[in-house]
Structure formats: C-alpha cells, structure tokens
Design brief:
The chain is of the alpha/beta class and about 260 residues long. The chain has six helices and 17 strands. It has a five-stranded parallel sheet with strand order 9-16-10-11-12, covered by helices on one side.
C-alpha cells in the first residue's frame, strides 16, 4: 500500500504516526510546497517578536521522518490530481502514484476586497506561513517600521499583534465585530483581553473595517475606515480568517 500525503503540518505528521501504528513498511511520501522541515504555526508570533529563532519552530526533527521511513519531498507544489489513475502531478512535472491519498493542505488567508488594494501593494501582509513571517520581518527592518495596523482581532490577528508589540511596533487593530476574539470568548472575557492590549499600548477599534487604502510609490500609506476615520500606516496585516485550500481538488469528483 502506497501512502501519499500532500501537506506537512500537524495533520500530516499525526497521519504518519497513525499509519505506522498499523503498517510498518508501506511506502509513505509527504509532499510540501514549503522548503522547511516543519514548523508550529502558533510559534510564528514568537519568531516575529524575536523571542525564538527559526530553528526552534520545528515540532518534529529530521529523525522523525527517517524513523518512520518517510520520503519527504519539500519545495514542490502539487498542481494536478488524477483520481482514476491515482497519481498527482507536481509543478516540476514529476508524477507520484498512490494507493491512499491524504490532502492536508490546510487553509489560505482571506483577503477581502478593499478599494485601492492590489496584489502587489507593498506593506500589506498575511500571517499564517513562515515565509510570510520572514518577509514581514525583513520589511519591518528595511523600512524601519514603528507602527502598524492589524485588520482582524481573532486568534491570528492577536498572534500578529503580540509579535509586533514585542518588536516595539505600535499597533492599532481594527475588528468588525463588537469585541476581540468574538468567536471564542463572551463579552466579559473579551473585555479582559482588550484591557491588556490597551495596557501594552495597542489601540482597539471595534465595529469598523477598512473601506479604502491609499498608496504612494506602490507602498501603503493610509487607511480610510467605513466610519470615515483615517489612519496613516506604513504596514497592514490582514488577519480576518482563513478558508479551506481547495485548489488541488477543483474540477475533480472528490466531494
């Protein structure tokens, strides 16, 4: 039995452990479009804040893959899936066959349409991948960023806020709901978080969102909110949530 796993995060690692609990010898291959061994996404805020280095992000070492006899294919994106012939095609045109396939590619960040926002606008980031965190850190250092705006005060947004504040960046967060972590906490619990954010210098704007972005030289310079309020900022992190990454299964009979 040939096992093929697309993705190399927590789901993939636990799948390998479960497979080896019942099948010690069947070939197992993991394909990931990221080039790093693996990393814990919740630790990205500590990496952004400088509390830990990149080598502290991994939750399984290289010996894990060797011990479980895993063929690890890194930096290669799966772009095609043939369910009848049971094979996937990688971006470099390599083809990998399988008997059992797990698609564990997680989610992709939601970036809502905003007037003035282009895909190549400089100073606008999401915050769910290590590569994005690296680009964010480089931008902060190169542009000497002192203040930033985080759109969304859910779990991803708060992790981004945490990392930014640890770097000494003044943060304003904009949340469409009436409180932070609205999908997680009740009003009382949310108010405790808001008080702690305020104590650390974070400005919390609730019940509002971004209507328009102004740029200069391709870089973000100012936000206009739906309320009409204007906020100058050289950096925006969009953290309004994620949606399932369905790119690989579009147009095929998988339900």
């Amino acid at each position: 039995m040939r096992f093929l796993i697309i993705g190399n995060s927590v789901a993939a690692v636990h799948c390998v452990e479960a497979i080896r609990g019942v099948d010690k010898e069947g070939p197992v291959t993991i394909v990931s479009d990221e080039e790093v061994l693996n990393y814990s996404r919740p630790l990205l805020s500590y990496y952004l804040g400088g509390r830990i280095t990149e080598n502290r992000l991994a939750f399984r070492d290289e010996a894990f893959y060797q011990r479980h006899k895993v063929d690890l294919v890194l930096g290669k994106k799966a772009i095609g899936l043939d369910t009848k012939k049971r094979k996937i095609r990688l971006a470099d045109e390599a083809v990998l066959p399988y008997d059992r396939l797990l698609i564990a590619v997680g989610g992709v960040p939601i970036v809502p349409p905003v007037d003035g926002l282009r895909h190549d606008t400089k100073g606008v980031f999401t915050f769910i991948q290590l590569q994005e965190a690296k680009r964010l850190i480089n931008y902060i250092e190169q542009e000497s960023i002192q203040e930033a705006v985080v759109l969304g005060a859910g779990l991803i947004g708060l992790k981004a806020i945490e990392g930014l504040m640890e770097r000494g960046v003044r943060v304003t967060t904009i949340e469409l709901m009436d409180r932070v972590l609205a999908n997680t906490f009740d009003a009382e619990a949310s108010s405790i978080i808001e008080e702690r954010l305020a104590a650390h210098g974070c400005t919390v704007i609730k019940g509002d969102t971004i209507a328009r972005i102004k740029t200069r030289g391709g870089k973000i310079k100012q936000l206009t909110l739906k309320s009409g309020k204007e906020i100058p900022t050289p950096l925006l992190i969009v953290a309004v949530g994620v949606r399932p990454n369905l790119e690989l299964v579009k147009g095929i009979p998988i339900k």
